[in-house]
Amino acid sequence: MAAASSLRVAFFGTPEIAVPTLERLIAGPWEVVAVVSQPDRPRGRGRKLSPSPVARTALEAGIPLLRPERVGEPEVVEALRALAPDIGVVVAFGQFIPKALRELPGLGFMINAHASLLPHFRGAAPINHAILAGEKTTGISVMRIEREMDTGPVALVRETRIGDHENTAELGERLARLAAEAVDEALGQLAAGRIEWSEQDHARASLAPKVERDMARLDWHESAAALARRVYAMAPKPGAFTLLAGEPLRILAAEVRAGKVGEPPGTVRCDGESLRIATGEGWLIPLRLQRAGARAMEVDAFLRGRPIPDGIRLGADDPVASGHE
Fold first, then answer.
1. H/E stretch holding 36
2. Beta 65-66 vs 31-36: how paired, if at all?
């Protein structure tokens, strides 16, 4: 194994949230000997084939880069073995990592920075689910990777408060920076031989599965508070949505107004510059709206270009909802 001050690291990651950790590792004192990311995919308006944010960072830094469709392919395992990493670091990679890779590093294991306070919100979308559940705090857990997703022992936890109107992207940016700090600290503990692992309490575990389209649908029979959480949990993508005259309408930011409603859920009250929507409990006050294929706008600007009739009812059952884009 390399000297304690220069652990050789193989980094596994794909989206933007993983980039701050990779940049922190590149800055040293660790030696990043390889980066593994998902293959190039169509991205942007032109849908041109382009590298993931992590792959782009590796290319710019001149680090050996692997972009396999299946990370467990023998040639990938052999390529990494030849680079002799001491430790593997995973942040939002997006593929199952088989035992042959998990045990390949010189230390015999890999670590992962997961964006929740484990054992809560194990799975692909912990940030969305933490906001949706109304959690006040979340954080980063640095754990050892095992076969079952997000079940390994935890070495280090860093907490942060969730802002009242913080959406998934905004919270994700803060957690990305926190992950970089936490991983760097964990590697320091590993290098010094003083890291301590604590088994998770599996009886307290909760799951955070991948966000599916239907999770973004707003049910106006819910309370305004629950609907506002869904708005921020789904913003900016896929965007919480309802139907306006049979057409999808995204709500990307909103406030809650308490008080007696006296209207059927989904009923709109609009004065031309602002609007409120009746819910099962209280009113939801949209702040930012977006029609399909159009740009997101503040509610007053939206209403100047597309007035919403006072008294109209949103979210009626309609097959358009299932095809919402």
1. strand 31-36
2. parallel
